[in-house]
Each structure stands twice: as structure tokens, then as C-alpha cells.
Amino acid sequence: MPGDDFSVVVLASDLAVDARPFLSQQEEEDSWHDCSQYLSPDEDFSDLDQLQFLRTQGSDKNGSRILRIVGKYYPATVVSPERLKRYVLHKICSELQDGPFCVVYMNSTVQQEDNSPGITILRWIYEELPADFKDRLQTVYFIHPGLRSRIVIATFGRFFLTGGLYWKIKYVSRLQYLWDDIRKGEIEIPEFVKSHDDILEHRPLTDYGIEPDPFHLTGIPSSSFSFGKYEERWAGRDYMS
User: Fold this and answer.
1) What is the pTM of this model?
2) Dist CA 213 CA 34 (whole Å)
3) Rounded to whole angstroms, how far apart are CA atoms 87 and 91?
4) Spatial contact of 70 and 110, defined as CB atoms under 8 Å apart
5) Do the Cβ atoms of 53 and 70 come closer than 8 Å?
6) Residue 53, SS3?
7) Who's near 193: CB < 8 A, 6+ residues apart?
8) CA max distance for the chain
């Protein structure tokens, strides 16, 4: 009828263009929130749940649900990347089905060989997330980032971390700065993370891979007696006189 709005998409047959993306766009949009394909009701993840390296706890001050990740608790040498991906997708789709959420990643005392799956595997898992989950992820709080982590992310982050993830990372060098975005009590902080935070507070150069006191000599109480060679020399003179 005259006045009705309509659009026409003309595809030349000799260009070998697949028309399905144009015809099924609405169908794809409707399936964004369908997490059934990522849930694994027949797979038992109780062993990974007991490790508590991935848990949902509380919310930040912006109202985003918190997905807490403790790097030290993750056994990279035991859990396969494929099973880790299934577990992450199962956890997110079953516990963070709607609304904004954030990630609090604790990098404290993480060993590269034992606790890190690698940036390539993390990127692979992130790419497997449904599109709306990537959009709902607001911030990644990176607690106690080491020098290696900063260099890797700064060098390769823009290329490996797609979907705006690179710009969502917020470094948190001390726990006191975390409380600017998350109220105390909203998230459980393991004791070893607190202890590591205390160490960094007294030796801040450790953040950059520099250990000013590798033998922890500053913690040894000073002796009231001196046994230096000069003192012994003067003592000998007094004895001979």
C-alpha cells in the first residue's frame, strides 16, 4: 500500500554471497539468551566446586554481580582446557543468567606453571561466551597484578582480548583500593591474599619483580653486641694497655 515502509535486499548470484545471515538475523538475536546448550546436567563438577577457584559472591557498588576467581586455587596441571571451558560456561549460564556482572580475579602468589591456563586458552573461553554475556560483563578487577601479567596484557591484550575486554580490566595493586568499588563483606578474601597484600605494603617494589630484601634480613632484630673487626681491634688495644 502507498506510504508503507519496506526494504529490499538485492544479492547478486554471481557474487557467491550467503544470504542466510540477512534472513536469519532475528532468529540469532532471539537465541542469544538461550544457555541450554552450555549447561551440562549430566556432567559432575562437584570436584571443581570444592576447589572454590570460581564462585559468585555479592555485588560491587554499581550493582554488578561478582564472579570471584582465585588463581592459586586453580590446578592448571590437572584440569584440561576443554573441561575448564565447560565448567566456566556452566557456572556463568546457571548463576549469572541476567543483569550486569563483574569479575574479581586474585592473582596473588599465582605460579605460572601450576595455576595459569595461559592467555590463549582464556581468550578461547571468552570467545565461546554468548554475545550478551560479553556485553553484560562490566569490569575485571585484577588484584595483585605482577610485572609479567602487566607486560603480557599491555603487549598482547589489544590483539588477544576482543569485544572490549581489554578496556574493562582494572588493576588493583592493594586491597584497600578494591574497597573503592566493592564494599567490605561483599566478597570473601582468602587469608593468603591478605598476607600477600601486607607483604606488598612493606615491599612495594615486589610488584615490579624487584625484591629488595630476598633473605628477609630486615625482619631480624638487631643485636646489642657488635662483632665487627674494627670493634675487636679496639678491644684488643684496650686489653693490651
Assistant:
1) 0.70
2) 54
3) 6
4) no
5) yes
6) coil
7) 70, 106, 108, 143, 144, 175
8) 124
